[in-house]
Amino acid sequence: MKAPRFSYAKPASVAEALALLDKYRDDARVLAGGQSLVPMLNFRLAAPKVLVDINRIAGLAGIKVAKAHVRIGALTRHAELERSAEIARHLPLVAAAMPHIAHPAIRNRGTVGGSCALGDPAAELPACALALGATFVVAGKKGERRIAAEDFFKGLYATALKAGELLVAVEFPLSKPGYASAFGELARRHGDYAMVGVAAHGSRKGGKFSDMRVAFFGVGDRPQRATGFEKALEGQSATDAALAKLDSELAPRGDLHASAAMKLHLAKVLAGRVLGELAA
Amino acid sequence: MNPPLETVELEVTVNGERVKRSVPARLNLADFLRHELELTGTHVGCEHGVCGACTVRVDGEIVRGCLLFACQADGCTVDTVEGLSDSREIEELQSAFVLTNALQCGFCTPGVLMAAQALLRDETNPSRERIREYLSGNYCRCTGYQAIVDAIEAVAKARAARSAR
């Protein structure tokens, strides 16, 4: 079970990477942390002719706190987020998600950009990006464009990224006063992909939920917000009535490990727990 | 800019020794260590990043040897279980593993030792729960983990006691 043959390129700048991606288009894949791509190569689920290794591009990694957002470079490793005092302070949702992402050896390599650009429906960071209303910064031949999280995830391993484009950063808006977040995930073993996960962010002023954004993952072909559920929470201090909304809003597909009914049940249990944590 | 290549020049420091090789781009680091350098302590299990048998250190941090192409380690420092054994960095762990019977077939052991040493380097007195969580990416099909956790806990306690003195 080895990777198929490919040609390897190690660009030193975003411009060089874009030139390669533009030249080879669908024959090229970006190699970031490689923690999902390399297994896919080894399984021969992917067989690109060219791997564009972006690991040596200076400036693609790092966490910068600006006035209105935290900008996380696409090549920033999970381990760096996990250790970052700035992430813990400004993006507690992302910090809470970190221990759930695979294992330490994987988090030392896996990147924020890689996780988001892959678009695995059971991955943690895409759901965090959705719950926090993040913006994806994408570079292409014609310059940069910015894509809202709502418009970025298009389906199973499908994103708004086009051939020839490179995700360079994710910008998470800074939290407003009185807002809080909570994260939960159910997996069969620690570090496995989620059977069900919930990332929630919103206001808890006066002990009532308001302006909630609740993203579920592992329950569909992409991370998804449950907007009816969010609306039902508005002005409430308890979650019970709102949770019933999820019956009609989530339509998980069963898989090897859990039937659709079990997944829906788990999603409701987990959402109750996560919002309970937020209310506490 | 160099064009994409199927064969890549690689210069890497492995266990303190500088090596230069020309390698196929598709060769992963674990296979490079085993087949090119004959460092067969790094094991290859699942080949998709799940089992942890191929765990090695690159620039001081543990990674999956099967999920990194050897050419990506160009210019890096790689440490394997042989290196940590020779430098006696994991001597206590090795003794504790023997003492508590923390291995049977030994296939997972090099990866477990690499991960355990990374944990004990970063955290002084991890709980049993924390040890289990940290080691969750290293599969052992023989021991049931109990003895592995015992061994790591014993070393953690011994080190903590020593540093408290």
Highlighted features:
A: 280 residues, Uridine Diphospho-n-acetylenolpyruvylglucosamine Reductase, domain 3, Enolase-like, domain 1, 3 domains, globular, B: 165 residues, alpha+beta, Ubiquitin-like (UB roll), DNA polymerase, domain 1, 2 domains, five-stranded mixed sheet, 6 helices
Biggest sheet of chain A, strands in spatial order?
A: 4-5-10-6-7
Structural class of chain A: alpha+beta
Assign an overall shape of chain B. elongated
Strand order in the sheet with the most strands of chain B: 2-1-5-3-4
Distance between the termini of chain A: 48 Å
Give the SSE string of chain A: EHEHEEEHHHHHHEEHEEEEEEEHHHH
- Poorly predicted runs of chain A: none
**Largest sheet geometry of chain B:** 5 strands, mixed
CATH C-level class of the largest domain in chain A: Alpha Beta
Number of domains of chain A: 3
Assembly level = heterodimer
Instruction: Report the radius of gyration of chain A as a whole number of Å.
Output: 19 Å
The CATH architecture of the largest domain in chain A would be 2-Layer Sandwich
CATH homologous superfamily (4th level) name of the largest domain in chain B = Beta-grasp domain
Total helices of chain B: the number is 6
- Count up the helices of chain A: 13
Topology of chain B as a string of helices (H) and strands (E): EEHEEEHHHHH
| CATH architecture level-2 label of the largest domain in chain B | Roll
